[in-house]
Amino acid sequence: SMDSAPLLETSGLTKSFRSLVALRDQAIVVRPGEIVGVIGPNGSGKSTFFNLVSGFLRPDSGSVRFDGQPIERRSAAEIVRLGIARTFQGTRLFKALSVAENVRAAAQLRHPSSMLDALVGTPRLRRAARRVDAITGELLGLVGLTGRAGVRAGDLPYGDQRRLELVRALATQPRLLMLDEPAAGMDAAETRELMDLVDRIRRRFGVAVIVVEHDMDLIMNLCERIQVLAHGQTIFEGAPAEVQAHPKVREVYLGH
Ligand code: ADP
Ligand code: MG
């Protein structure tokens, strides 16, 4: 709700690559459990924003606060453990590993075991392993991949690979899930299924979601609020209906 403290808050976020300003003075507030869309033409800075928040890039200036804590100097691994998970535009699965192994590897990012734990099989390790198994089982069930747990990830149909990406992100038990073009390459039916899934995930786990997507139906139906980027700058932010009606957005993004 509007009165809860922000989960994510960026301010003045700026990143250049040589002379190109990929993101300029970006500011966004995401509250717990909210679902926010980020749209804009190719090259408008959407993935750069994701990379800055998830620790894959350092900002030139500006701040990223998560749960009130500055995180713009943290590593990607630390940020995962704080509770931010992201997916990538293309899939980044371990194609030679099984579906279950892919999910377990992700869950272990959140529940790392020390060398000593692993060597002596401490109770802490056994507890962590049980937790990882439970998370893996539940998530595969949620996306209908239980029967595929032993299949090589690379042998899954494309739609299932994208669902597995989503499960891998969730396996780190995030409070904020960032999805970069999750429906890319999906047909209309697969996209609808994915929308349902993201909504179910949000309700089941209470995570906040930021989604970058070109599919306007998906964005408009799924998101409570949308930020529109063009040339690295926020040109509008509002509810889906406001975004669709805004002349500048129509001109820049929707092309009419
Ligand atoms: P979007 O995700 O909205 O398509 P990006 O954030 O990927 O846009 O890119 C924004 C701009 O920054 C683009 O012009 C892109 O070419 C450039 N860019 C992104 N990442 C890099 C990088 N690592 N090195 C150089 N230029 C980059
Ligand atoms: Mg992108």
Topology:
Elements lengths: L7 E10 L2 E11 L4 E5 L6 H8 L7 E6 L2 E2 L5 H7 L1 E3 L12 H12 L4 H6 L2 H20 L15 H14 L4 E5 L7 H18 L2 E5 L3 H7 L2 E6 L2 E6 L1 H6 L1 H8 L2
Helix pairs in contact: 3-5, 3-6, 5-6
Bound molecules: adenosine-5'-diphosphate and magnesium ion.
Shape: globular
> Can you list the ligands bound to this structure?
adenosine-5'-diphosphate, magnesium ion
Cα distance spanning the termini: 34 Å
Q: Largest sheet at a glance?
A: 6 strands, mixed
Radius of gyration: 19 Å
Number of helices: 10
Explain what you see.
The model has no long low-confidence stretch (mean pLDDT 90). Helix 3 packs across helix 5 and helix 5 runs antiparallel to helix 6. By secondary structure, the chain is an alpha/beta fold. Strand 4 and strand 5 form a beta hairpin. It is built from 10 helices and 10 strands. The structure holds adenosine-5'-diphosphate and magnesium ion (MG). Keywords: ATP-binding, Nucleotide-binding, Transport. InterPro entries: AAA+_ATPase, ABC_AA/LPS_Transport, ABC_transporter-like_ATP-bd, BCA_ABC_TP_C, P-loop_NTPase.
Features:
256 residues, alpha/beta, Rossmann fold, 2 domains, 6-stranded mixed β-sheet, 4-stranded antiparallel β-sheet, 10 helices, 10 strands, 41% helix, binds adenosine-5'-diphosphate, binds magnesium ion
Short description:
Residues 8-256 form the ABC transporter domain. The chain has 256 residues and is α/β, with parallel strands linked by helices. The chain folds into two domains: 1-83 and 174-256, P-loop containing nucleotide triphosphate hydrolases (Rossmann fold); 93-158 and 167-172, no CATH class.
